[in-house]
């Protein structure tokens, strides 16, 4: 199969590039080794839209952070995903010098961040009563915001798909070779569910593309180094988080940062767009690029470190913990554009924080470069908008009753913690790039993200998947591969 563009990675950056490229007349595909979009770094992060005050002026991180922040609100309206401009605070404690805040404000102003100011404790406590006793002042950034990273990633991918981009899931790229006019990519089509459990081997194929885009997260160095003269070295930097129940969601209203260090922005405490409270991350460099386990030491560190900025965080309300990996490149900046000595191979590598914020701007930059490279023509029928999954809880009682009368599935509660209905799960399954796993349903609808963490709703969600896809109960997984739930019948075993 021949494509104009092949994008490796269906995270938020790959999906943003795909969406921008779908504005042009071309054939494009996204190659993703996992069973769904948003399965790597994009699903396990702080969900913060950074204001842009801490990136070194003149870097890609600085320029694209501010541009991405400016784009995000309008994008949320076009693609219908949750976004709240709640503002951020970088707090200083009495044992720290104010020069740290002043340096951040200076960098922020150079980067073009509006509205920055330093606020003293008396005013701070009116904004955030639960700040720690040692906090003396803070840098306030009113343009800081929070977003749902799942819905952002999925919205970008769905819109790209609706505009003609092909998504090849469960498809792992194993090698890339430069030919005279294009690239040959060797791919493995990976089995899922019962076939994977039974040990079925992946099927090897190859595709060709005039342009390859490398948005492979922690593996971006591997693909770059297959074709480019300039080698990259990406380290997986693990960040662990704790998510608290919605009963703790109003403990703070802004995103509370600590003065950053060389390993990152410190431990933050922030509300989420869904009403929870999030604490994290740690920052530990690991050799294993699959190392997303949480640790007792890491979670203990979070509870101790967060107390420096916010007091009385109700950690008894933790409902889950998780870890994600950041793709840290040794030059400490995004690596963007055509790779040296590899014409037609474009990198979107080293995308760590503020990568989520910068993703829409990265998509724009890369799409423009590729459009110029291939002399692409803009479409006349690009569909710029996308509607998310309808949430009955956002409707008035009259509207909800009317909806249930017309579509009774919206009156059948499947997830009691988050009050998710069968109608929402049906929508998640049948829309473009529909869910095919429990995690796929969870990321689209929040069924399973509540206090019981799928304890009640998972069997009922499986029944809906089995009926609606339709698919064998043996092929239903948590997150693809061998993560099956049902492996046999008790009598048979």
The appropriate CATH architecture of the largest domain is 3-Layer(bba) Sandwich
What is the name of the CATH class of the largest domain?
Answer: Alpha Beta
The gross shape turns out to be: globular
Poorly predicted parts: none
What is the number of independent domains? 3
Measured between the Cα atoms of the first and last residue, the distance is: 43 Å
Mean pLDDT: 96
CATH third-tier fold name of the largest domain: FAD/NAD(P)-binding domain
Helix content: 25-40%
Structural class: alpha+beta
The Rg value, from CA coordinates, equals 23 Å
Note the main sheet.
8 strands, mixed
* Beta-strand percentage range: 15-25%
Number of helical segments with 4 or more residues: 13
How many runs of DSSP E, i.e. beta strands?
A: 22
List the helices and strands and how they pair.
Blueprint: E1 2-8, H1 12-21, E2 28-31, E3 48-49, H2 60-79, E4 83-84, E5 88-93, H3 99-111, E6 117-120, H4 121-127, E7 135-141, E8 145-147, H5 149-162, E9 166-168, E10 171-178, E11 183-189, H6 194-197, E12 203-214, H7 220-227, E13 234-244, E14 255-258, E15 268-271, E16 277-280, E17 284-286, H8 296-306, E18 318-329, E19 335-338, E20 345-349, H9 355-374, H10 397-406, E21 413-415, E22 420-421, H11 422-430, H12 438-445, H13 458-468
Helix pairs in contact: 1-5, 1-9, 2-9, 11-12, 11-13
């Amino acid at each position: 199969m021949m494509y104009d563009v092949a994008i490796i990675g269906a995270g938020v950056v790959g999906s943003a590039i795909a969406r921008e490229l779908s504005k042009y007349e071309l054939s494009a595909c996204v190659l993703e080794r996992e069973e769904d979009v948003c399965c790597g770094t994009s699903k396990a992060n702080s969900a913060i839209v950074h204001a842009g005050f801490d990136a070194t002026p003149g870097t890609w991180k600085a320029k694209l952070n501010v541009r991405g922040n400016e784009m995000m609100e309008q994008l949320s309206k076009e693609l219908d995903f949750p976004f709240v401009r709640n503002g951020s605070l970088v707090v200083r404690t009495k044992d720290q010098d104010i020069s740290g805040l002043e340096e951040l404000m200076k960098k922020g102003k150079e980067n073009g961040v509006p509205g920055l100011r330093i606020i003293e404790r008396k005013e701070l406590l009116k904004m955030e009563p639960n700040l720690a006793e040692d906090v003396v002042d803070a840098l306030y950034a009113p343009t800081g915001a929070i977003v749902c990273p799942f819905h952002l990633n999925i919205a970008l991918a769905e819109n790209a798909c609706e505009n003609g981009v092909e998504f090849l899931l469960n498809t792992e790229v194993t090698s890339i070779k430069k030919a005279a006019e294009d690239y040959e990519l060797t791919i493995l089509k990976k089995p899922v569910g019962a076939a994977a459990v039974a040990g079925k081997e992946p099927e090897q194929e190859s595709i060709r593309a005039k342009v390859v885009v490398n948005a492979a997260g922690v593996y971006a160095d591997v693909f770059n180094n297959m074709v480019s003269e300039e080698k990259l070295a990406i380290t997986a930097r693990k960040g662990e988080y704790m998510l608290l129940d919605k009963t703790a969601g109003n403990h703070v209203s802004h995103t509370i940062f600590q003065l950053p260090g060389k390993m990152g922005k410190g431990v933050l405490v922030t509300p989420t767009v869904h009403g929870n409270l999030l604490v994290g991350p740690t920052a530990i460099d690991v050799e294993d690029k699959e190392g997303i386990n949480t640790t007792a030491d890491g979670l203990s560190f979070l509870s101790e470190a967060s107390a420096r900025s916010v007091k009385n965080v109700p950690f008894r309300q933790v409902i889950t913990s998780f870890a994600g990996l950041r793709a840290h490149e040794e030059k400490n900046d995004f690596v963007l554009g055509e790779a040296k000595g590899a014409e037609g191979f474009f990198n979107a590598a080293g995308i760590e924080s503020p990568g989520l914020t910068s993703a829409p701007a990265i998509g724009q930059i890369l799409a423009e470069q590729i459009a110029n490279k291939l002399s692409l023509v803009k479409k006349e029928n690009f569909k710029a908008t996308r509607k998310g999954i309808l949430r009955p809880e956002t409707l008035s009682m009259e509207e909800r009753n009317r909806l249930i009368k017309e579509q009774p599935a919206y009156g059948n509660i499947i997830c009691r913690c988050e009050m998710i209905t069968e109608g929402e799960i049906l929508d998640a399954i049948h829309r473009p790039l529909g869910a095919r796993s429990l995690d796929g349903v969870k990321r689209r609808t929040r069924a399973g993200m509540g206090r019981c963490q799928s304890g009640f709703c998972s069997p009922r969600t499986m029944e809906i998947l089995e009926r609606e896809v339709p698919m064998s109960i043996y092929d239903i997984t948590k997150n693809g591969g061998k993560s099956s739930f049902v492996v046999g019948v008790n009598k048979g075993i």
